[in-house]
Design a protein that fits this description.
With 370 residues, this protein is an alpha/beta fold. It has three domains: 67 residues; 47 residues, no CATH class; 194 residues, 3-Layer(aba) Sandwich (Rossmann fold). It is built from 13 helices and seven strands. It has a seven-stranded mixed β-sheet. Helix 1 packs antiparallel against helix 2. The longest helix has 32 residues. The radius of gyration is 29 Å and the shape is globular.
């Protein structure tokens, strides 16, 4: 072992000894203020409180011992990989979300790339980190890839299909029908009233007009391939869409239609200023699989961005019937919004028929003043 290594080990051992000694002193102090076995029995008095700053120091010292022990454990030193150099560089000039550190292997894989060259095909890895709360992703110094020969006349050529290894074909036509932009269902969606759960765009504009409320800017949370935003665009309403690709090119479809697709998870605050949005629609991404506390934070972030008189539209939220009454209805009523539409229907399973789940479509209007 070299002289430098020996010196480092001695320094570490000295720190450990000193911190353990300080811990013992603080522990003895704590015991001396709470126990006394030598004095005769008499009416018990409250022992003096240990100063808060000493308790903080005790906790800090114990945490330091634990950290030093882990960092300089022989087994850890040989097995833990060194962090990628760009991650170290970035950490000195920019904050990295805490959740990124909770998935070190994925983060290491994402940041282990060749700097100043083409970025790897790792879109699904990036999205996996985003869905685990590592957002915004750490920045990288690599060049984003582009399609080889993109032509607007050939929509399939705009997509880098290699980013979607689970898609066996290289065409929108072999995906689900909703990815075929001229599919008949697209023309009817949001325009034709079929059931009480529907809220059409013409109805929405009529409601806004009667309440003397303008519709100019909206957000579609979980907007999928952007059908709602594209139709609102025809009405001169700008609608930003939050979407995740989930193995298929949702974001590319939005871009093809002229819709701004924000690649953002539900746990991220909506990236707009307070009180500037006229409408927020929650699509199929917002449903009962979201933990209640997370849904509550989402609703209050929606309240933050909505202006007075703005609308919150929850489209076909599904849940257990009992949960709708005991959990979600009280949660929505807490907002104190005006109920413009409230419609429920039983959810029908194609294999099992009716079950105990229900759909809810609700349109709420935020108060003008608070």
């Amino acid at each position: 072992m070299s002289t430098t290594m020996s010196f480092k080990m001695c320094t570490i051992n000295t720190i450990l000894i000193l911190t353990m000694f300080a811990t013992n002193l603080l522990s003895l102090y704590h015991l001396s203020t709470t126990t006394n076995f030598l004095k005769p029995k008499h009416p018990i008095k409250q022992p003096p409180q240990v100063p808060t700053h000493l308790l903080h120091q005790l906790h800090t010292i114990r945490a330091t011992i634990t950290r030093l022990t882990r960092l300089h454990s022989p087994s850890r030193a040989h097995t833990a990989p060194l962090p990628p150099s760009d991650l170290v560089t970035l950490s000195r000039v920019s904050a990295i979300p805490t959740s990124c550190h909770e998935h070190p292997e994925m983060l290491h894989q994402y940041m282990n790339y060749t700097a100043f060259s083409l970025c790897p095909y790792d879109g699904q890895l990036a999205e996996s980190l985003i869905l685990r709360g590592c957002h915004p992703l750490p920045r990288r110094r690599c060049f984003s890839r582009t399609a080889v020969n993109p032509r607007l006349s050939d929509l399939d050529s705009v997509v880098i299909w290699r980013n979607y290894p689970s898609v066996t074909c290289r065409s929108f036509n072999c995906l689900k029908p909703k990815f075929v932009l001229n599919h008949p269902n697209h023309k009817q969606e949001f325009m034709v009233y079929k059931s009480n759960l529907d809220l059409t765009i013409p109805q929405l504009f009529d409601i806004a007009k009667k309440s003397k409320s303008n519709l100019r800017l909206g957000i579609d949370i979980g907007g999928g391939f952007g059908n709602f935003a594209a139709k609102m665009q025809e009405k001169n309403v700008t609608v930003l869409t939050t979407t995740m690709n989930l193995g298929v090119p949702y974001s590319e479809v939005n871009a093809i239609r002229g819709v701004v697709a924000m690649h953002a998870p539900l746990q991220q605050p909506l990236p707009v200023y307070d009180g500037v949005v006229d409408l927020v629609r929650c699509g199929h991404a917002v449903n009962r699989w979201i933990p209640k506390i997370m849904l509550e934070f989402l609703l209050y972030d929606i309240d933050r961005v909505l202006r007075g008189g703005g609308f919150l539209w929850i489209d076909r939220f599904f849940s257990k019937g009992v949960d709708l009454e005991t959990v979600y209805k009280p949660l929505l009523f807490k907002l104190g919004y005006k109920i413009v539409k409230w419609a429920t229907e039983n959810k029908i399973d194609s294999k099992r028929g009716k079950n105990n789940e229900v759909y809810l479509t609700v349109l709420l209007q935020k108060p003008q003043f608070r």
